[in-house]
Structures are given as C-alpha cells and as structure tokens.
Amino acid sequence: MLSRAIRSSPKLPVTRSIVRTRHFSSLDLVPNEPAGPSVITDKVPGPEGIAASKEIDTFQDSRTHVIVPNYEESNGNYLIDADGNVLLDVFAQISSIALGYNVPALLELAKTDEFAKAAMNRPALGSFPPVQWAEWLKTGLLTVTPKGLDQLITTLCGSSANETAFKCSFMAYRQRERGGPEVAFTKEEMDSCMLNQTPGAPQLSVLSFKSGFHGRLFGSLSATRSKAIHKVDIPAFDWPAAPFPELKYPLDEHVKENEAEEKRCLEEYEKILVESKITRPVAAVIIEPILSEGGDRHASNDFFRQLRLIAKKHDAYFIVDEVQTGVGATGTFWAHEKWGLKQGEEPDFVTFSKKMQAAGVYHKKETRPNAPYRNYNTWMGDPIRALQAREMIKLIKQHDLVSHTAATGSSLASSFKSVFSSSVASGKVMNLRGEGDGTYLAWDMASPSLRDSFVGKMRVNGIQIGGCGDQTVRLRPMLTFGEKHAEILVSTTEKVLREL
C-alpha cells in the first residue's frame, strides 16, 4: 500500500553498547550547548546583523543573507547571530551541519598536526595524493559506502558530485556502445569532439524530474527543475524532464488516487525513455529520494524501485542524489535504503555532500572511465574534509545518531499532527509529511506569504527554520537534535500559529 510505504517508521537496530542503551543528549557532544533560545532584539536580524550585511554588500551581493552568525559563540544546535540572539537552528545551514556548532571532538581534530598539515599542504589529489589517502578513506568515507557500490570519487561540492556522475554515465554509456573499455577511440571521435560535434560529442541526455534540484553548474543546472531564478538567462542542455507524483494528504485517505498518480508518472517516465532513443538517448536518470528544494515532495518506496528497474530496462544508468537526504537525516544513513532494492538493483551512482561536509560520488567499478584524466580536476575534493567526515562518521556510529534521529522524528511527527489538527492551525497548515523519514518533516502553509510570515515570526521567537518550494516549511535539524529541542520547536510553532 502506498500510505504504508511512506508512513511506516524504519526499524531501529538492536542496541549493542552502553552508549546506545541510554537516551542520547546533545550535551554528550557539546557540553556547553545553551539551555534554550533567547532573542534580545525586536527583529531578527537586529541592527548589528543588518550593519554587517550592509558592509558585505559593498563588495558582495547580500540580498540572500538570512542572518549574520557569530560562529565562534554558536554551540551545538544553537546559532548565535551578530546581535547576540540565540536561535535553535532546525535548518542547519540548508541541511549541511551533521552534529552541531563547535563540537569539541571536531575542534580537537582541527588542532592536530595531521589536520593542520593536510590543510596547509593541500594536494592536487588526482596526481599527488598524500601517502595516508587510502587509509583516510578506508577508515572514513568508505565505511558508509552504499550497498552494491565499491568505488569513490571525491569532489568539491554537491553540484560537482552530480556533474561527475553525469560524466561517468556518458563515458560508460559510450564505452558500452563501443563494445567495452578495450576498444580504442576512433580518429573521427577524437577530432569531432574538439568541434563539439558528433560522434565525439554525442547527443546524449540526462533525465530528471519536475521540481527536482541537482545544483547550479551547467550540467546540474540543466537537470534542475525548481527555482527558476537560478536557471533564467543560462543556456541549458535539451534534456527531458519526467513528472513527479502530486500526492494527496493525508495519505491513508487518498490511497487509490495516489496509486493512480504514481502509475501515471511511471508510464510517462518510461514513454520519455523510449522516445528519447530516437533523437537524444537518456544515458542516465537522476532522482532525489525526497525532492527537497522543490517543496519536499515524497513518493512511495515502490515508486522509486520502479524508477530504478525501468531505467535498467532501458539501459540508462541510475543516479541517486543524496546530497541533502544522506548521512542519517531520514532515519537511515542513506534515504534510498528504504526502497527495498534487491541485489543487482542498487543504484549505479550515489552522490553526497552537505551533512558529510566532504562531497563525492560512490559508484560501481564498471563505470570507472577507461582512460586517465577523464574525470579529473586539480583538487578533487579536500583532504581536511575527508578527515572531518571520518571523525563525524565515527561519532555518528558511536552515539547511534541515525537511530536517534529516526526515534526523534517519529515522536516529533506525532506532536506536529496533534498541533496541526487543532483549531490553532485551521486554514493555515496542510499536508504534513515525512513521517517515517526521521526528522525530515515538512508541511505547507495556506499561501506563500503566510509561509514567509511564519518563518519570519519563528525567527523572532528564537527558531531558525527554513522553507522550500512555493509555500512549504521544512525541517533540517542536526542529528543531535533531540526531545528537549523538539519540545521547544513544537511549543514555539503552536505559539506562532496563534499569532498568524
């Protein structure tokens, strides 16, 4: 059933240590975390924050500033701004902070000779990797390799991770057409690619989904189908976009309609894959487990599994963009773990960034390029980010923070359902979603202006929260967000809804 696929909470692993048998507290990692929010200015940002933005604006566009934080003073789940306001941060730098601000264990890592020398002797990793590179990755990023994948390319950011996966897909697709990696390029291919012409520059495409977001570089921006302000005026590849289901909520009251909607989208998706073979074959399909920037849009686990199987049927590589959903945010380390993919059905590529702080692409050995320098740049990531990711992964496992996030999210969803079903939210809030996906919760406000007003009032009341899509409010707290923080968040949400 569709509703069950989305709403069921993931099973928590059996506890195996003293740390896991007691309730986790963010104080375990950040002993000096504030007890709660405190706002001392009438507006947020206040005068000091506004002045700081104006100074930056003399040389850099400041119109996207939300607040100007004082990162030296921020701690744990709390962000302190230039005016001294203490805000409970449930947005985490657009889902990019895993454990919190100024975590002592991470600060201690930064003080080590290993970290300092890696930072000050930054290598061109593709050509001059440090002697410790294999050890750093084998004890860090490679310990959380998604099932079925055994290769890793490190990159600089989420957009570059997706661009790298696109390039790998195109090269592997053409390699397969030629008959294998041992088949050499023809002179015609080598000459024509320098003119941006076929056959060296083939007319291939990447299929993405409406409302999806995959980055702001040229290839990733062509696959992005949300936030027009990022795309307008920019030349784009002529790549196809498939529909993504428009689910109705509550899910258990619209099972048949939602199943029909998913079926319609799958049929249109397959039709695009078939028809594209004539003019611009789809070499790769890219999908987010939850369409985040486009409004936190969900679909059933079976829908995603069918996307993967249909791509495989039509010889398209399958890329799962876990830049925002990865690293425990949804109550499993990788969100696509919930899809129920069987052996042989795993994605060909999984991209990551944000909460990992490092960025890159996990992939299969068969998609490794057939010649050197084909997926290459000077930095290819950053060794200090690999070290930071290794330490964070260790702490996430030590404190069982993925299971903690799953449990916290389940309780939080229940609390929000209670608030949103009361008169205080009537006519203001709808479509609460994300139950069973950890703290990755979202809801719609009745209008874009009401959403913006809600987010602004939450900030004045000590909660840094974010939006996405046209009128969606989304939660993106850290993995250390717990019961104490949830109580503050829910009570403040109820208070602000009364004021709207």
Description:
Its EC number is 2.6.1.19. It holds the Pfam family Aminotran_3. The chain has 500 residues and is an alpha/beta fold. The protein folds into 2 domains: 2-106 and 401-499, Aspartate Aminotransferase, domain 1 (Alpha-Beta Complex); 123-381, Type I PLP-dependent aspartate aminotransferase-like (Major domain) (Aspartate Aminotransferase, domain 2, 3-Layer(aba) Sandwich), CATH 3.40.640.10. The chain is built from 17 helices and 14 strands. It has helices at 2-7, 18-21, 47-57, 92-95, 104-110, 113-120, 133-138, 158-178, 187-193, 218-223, 228-231, 255-279, 301-313, 383-398, 401-420, 448-460, 483-499, and strands at 78-80, 86-89, 151-155, 205-209, 241-242, 282-287, 317-321, 349-352, 359-363, 429-433, 442-445, 463-464, 466-468, 472-474. The strands form 3 sheets. It has a 7-stranded mixed beta sheet, sandwiched between helices. The radius of gyration is 23 Å and the shape is globular. The relative contact order is 0.16.
Overall body shape: globular
Bin the strand percentage. 5-15%
Distance between the termini: 37 Å
Unreliable residue stretches: 1-21
The radius of gyration over CA amounts to 23 Å
CATH topology of the largest domain: Aspartate Aminotransferase, domain 2
**CATH homologous superfamily identity of the largest domain:** Type I PLP-dependent aspartate aminotransferase-like (Major domain)
Query: Total number of helical segments?
Result: 17
Instruction: Count the beta strands.
Output: 14
Report the biggest beta sheet as strand number plus sense, adding barrel if it closes: 7 strands, mixed
For the biggest β-sheet, the strand order reads 3-9-8-7-6-4-5
Number of domains: 2
CATH arch. level architecture of the largest domain: 3-Layer(aba) Sandwich
Alpha-beta classification: alpha/beta
Residue-averaged pLDDT, rounded?
Answer: 94
Q: According to CATH, what is the class of the largest domain?
A: Alpha Beta
Helix content: 25-40%
Catalytic activity: 4-aminobutanoate + 2-oxoglutarate = succinate semialdehyde + L-glutamate
Family: Belongs to the class-III pyridoxal-phosphate-dependent aminotransferase family.
GO molecular function: transaminase activity
Protein name: 4-aminobutyrate aminotransferase
